[in-house]
Amino acid sequence: MKRGDAVVCAAVLLLAAGIFALGLTRAGGGQLTAVVRQDGAEVARVLLSGLGEPVTVTVTGEYENVITVDASGARVQSSTCPRQTCVHTGLLTRAGQSAVCLENRMTLTLEGAGAPDVVIR
């Protein structure tokens, strides 16, 4: 490895670290809102910032989804659906993330600053 190769490797690593740091700072800014929809209709909207204690939203239908929202994020805490994909999605912490329960036709989405520029449906 020559001296020029080491300089190029160092420059690439610094550039990658800068891009990573920029992504972290942009994703963390702004207010987040958890939006729960069933059959496309909005069921609940909860602002995450300033929440003192967790808020629980229950969505009923063919199955039941229990959603917990607190200052750190939102998650589908439990569900009576057979696949449990919505529960296994885990904690949503950034704008644009979502959890979907296809069986109950329910979506949980975080909206706010830092959301993606384009959403493909």
Please, could you describe this protein's structure?
With 121 residues, the protein is of the alpha+beta class. The chain has two helices and seven strands. The strands form two sheets. Strands 2-1-7-6 form a four-stranded antiparallel sheet. It has two domains: 1-30; 31-112, mini-chromosome maintenance (MCM) complex, domain 2, CATH 2.60.320.10. Strand 3 and strand 4 (65-70) form a beta hairpin.
Quick tags:
single chain; 121 residues; alpha+beta; mini-chromosome maintenance (MCM) complex, domain 2; 4-stranded antiparallel beta sheet; 3-stranded antiparallel beta sheet; 7 strands; elongated
Task: Indicate the topology.
Blueprint: H1 3-28, E1 32-38, E2 41-47, E3 55-59, E4 65-70, E5 73-79, H2 85-88, E6 98-101, E7 106-112
Antiparallel strand pairs: 1-2, 1-7, 3-4, 4-5, 6-7
Q: What assembly state would you assign to the polypeptide chains in this entry?
A: single chain
- Helix count equals 2
As residue ranges, the low-confidence spans are none
Q: Strand sequence of the main sheet, in spatial order?
A: 2-1-7-6
Q: What share of residues is helical?
A: 10-25%
Instruction: Identify the overall geometry.
Output: elongated
* Overall pLDDT metric: 85
What's the main sheet like?
A: 4 strands, antiparallel
Number of DSSP-assigned strands? 7
State the gist of this model.
With 121 residues, the protein is α+β, with helices and mostly antiparallel strands. Helices cover 25% and strands 36% of the residues.
